[in-house]
Amino acid sequence: MNDRLAAALHRVRGAARTARSGAGSWWRGTRSGWSRLRTSQRARRAGLAVAILLVGTASAAGGLALVGGTKADIGPFDTTVALHPDLHGETVVTIPPLGRVAFDSHDGPVGLNLRLDSVDPVAAQTIINTPGGVTTASEGLAGEVTDAVVRVVVEALAIVTLCGLLIGALVFRSVRRTLLTGVTSLAVTAALMGYAASTLRAESISQPRYEGLLAYAPSVVGNAEDIAVNYETYVANLQKFVTNISEFYAVATNMPQIGIDDDSIRVLHVSDIHLNLSAWHLMESVVDQFDIDAVADTGDLNDWGSEQEAEIFSRGVEQIDAPYVFVKGNHDSSTTVAALAAYDNVVVLDGEVQEIAGLDFAGVADPRFTPDKGSQPSSEYAQQMLTYSGERLVNAIEDAGGADVAMVHEPPMAEPLAGVVPLVLAGHTHERAVHDLGDGTMLMVEGSTGAAGLRNFQSEEPIKMEMDVLYFDPVTKALTAYDSISVGAVGETDVTLNRTVIPTDEQVNEAELQNGGTESPTVQPGGGTESASPQQD
Known about the structure:
The structure is a single chain. By secondary structure, this protein is an alpha/beta fold. The protein is built from 13 helices and 20 strands. β8 (294-297), α10 and β9 form a beta-alpha-beta unit. α2 (41-66) crosses α5 (141-172), α2 (41-66) packs across α6 (175-198) and α3 (121-129) crosses α8 (234-253).
């Protein structure tokens, strides 16, 4: 037994010695091979080439990301043309604040952006109103776009080359290797741009993808299929696109700017959504395009106030990236209010004042829950309920020391607020209107942001989705202007923008003097405005 154990131990020791010897031989062989590789001139050159290629490629990517835009005059537009890394390789035309138009024009990894910064209104109106003006102006558009793209490409190549030289100098600390890195960056970028150019799809100009408000108005650029039929070449399609869109953009950007500053507080007033999911997408676009600071909803999110409806509209609330101030309407139930209150960005007001986005908002719930009734109070008792709610809000405002904006659902609730607050927002009637309540108080009644929901199908006249962007002075908190937005709902594709500028006290006094002190100007919807309403060419 002991002899067998001793023999086994001897065999184990022998195997261990053999393994150690083999491992040592492998390690010595590996070290020797690595040493030969390090001393090999060919291997060193290959490693250096790989390092230069990697650093040059990284420099090209970084330089391309740093490329700014080049200014260019394209037709009546002042534009900025820029390149950027993009795996999808789209061409995007940005038209603030209306949205974007994207074309699947080529493959990546380089994208092209054209931003319309401003428009020459005189030139645009001349093009539109002069017989043959569109044709004449469009003849040079393709060349102007091409020149702008060539300039930005040259700028990009110069920037990535400089970036490659700088990074190469930091990494290699050798003039020759630095130059090779810069050349590599230039070559990689040129190859990427060449590949993008080789995949250009001219037909993409007839298949645009609209985002923002433009998504609701494809008639702005004409029917894509008509463009494809009437204009077979890329140049002609491009001319059609730019000249058609100039009509909308020229008027939209020529609206009065008095009373609207970059630091103005912007509030989106919506009302009577009535479970229209399209309204939420439109609201999301407006919040993004107009840099909205807060959304004021004056009620009637749904029709019956059921749990099922709450599940539907709650998905819409999640889309809004701004504080959402809400007062209950007569179609909203306690279930509606509870579902809304669960969101962090939602503020439900009912007889209180809260500061949101720099403004003091006061609001009170509609005292009625009448989803099966008409839009007007049906009895003297109902009228008393509305008046009492307005008086309750007056007490809340006085206790809080004042408010900048009051929110109610039904217009009769606003009557007790005359002289208490400068602006009252309401809804309920599905008809946009502006009234002077007296004593310095304005009542703005919003139309139906949801185009009255299912009631639209019962109406003889189509109802539009309506909302207003309100501009407030950040110091005085006074309303200085508002944009009225109307969007076609069922079977319509039109968008109308209408700006109203609120006259200042100085302007009011001047008007009174000119009128002999007998009358003062009143604010009417669309008064002193320019409107933008695109028509299909």
